[in-house]
């Protein structure tokens, strides 16, 4: 009986004891059958191992894409927060510890900042706004607050609508004196 012709890989596997001659013959016979079926019938034999490997590779590519997208979103969010912080700190209006009390609502809680009289009027009239940072609250001009609001609407805590001074002739209460010590 003649020995089957072995390719180098099969020879190595036989030599190392990982396979035996009967398994080599079975593999060759199966390969011949598949080739014959494919030639005669035009039937393509589907290799399930290759198919499952390709599916696994496609799933891995999709997972990688999703992870990259999430990583990119996180980096963009970090950059946006840093940008808002930088804009706020460069344009902030100083608060005064012994100034007037200005109270506002943030997350259903009343918060307080102490500001000068002109800054308080600016906050009330919409010419200034309050920005929430992780370190606290900062007061900035209204233009800056609008720029920040374009980037992140949740960063702006207080930005009142700009009020127009009522013309003296249209003011029905022009004849009444307003007390100087009146605080709302």
From TrEMBL:
Pfam families linked:
DUF2058 (PF09831)
Per its record, how is this protein called by name?
Nucleoprotein/polynucleotide-associated enzyme
What does the organism's lineage look like at the top? Bacteria, Pseudomonadati, Pseudomonadota, Gammaproteobacteria, Methylococcales
């Amino acid at each position: 009986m003649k020995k089957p012709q072995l390719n180098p890989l099969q020879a190595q596997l036989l030599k190392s004891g990982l396979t035996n001659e009967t398994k080599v013959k079975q593999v060759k016979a199966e390969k011949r059958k598949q080739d014959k079926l494919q030639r005669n019938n035009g039937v393509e034999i589907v290799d399930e191992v290759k198919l499952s490997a390709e599916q696994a590779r496609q799933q891995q590519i999709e997972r990688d894409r999703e992870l990259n997208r999430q990583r990119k979103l996180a980096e963009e969010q970090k950059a946006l927060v840093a940008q808002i912080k930088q804009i706020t700190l460069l344009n902030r209006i100083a608060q005064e510890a012994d100034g007037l009390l200005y109270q506002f609502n943030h997350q259903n809680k009343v918060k307080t900042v102490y500001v000068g009289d002109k800054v308080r009027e600016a906050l009330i009239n919409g010419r200034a706004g309050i920005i929430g940072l992780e370190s606290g609250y900062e007061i900035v001009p209204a233009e800056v607050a609008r720029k920040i609001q374009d980037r992140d609407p949740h960063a702006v805590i207080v930005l009142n609508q700009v009020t127009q001074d009522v013309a003296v002739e249209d003011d029905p209460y022009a004849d009444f004196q307003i007390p100087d010590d009146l605080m709302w």
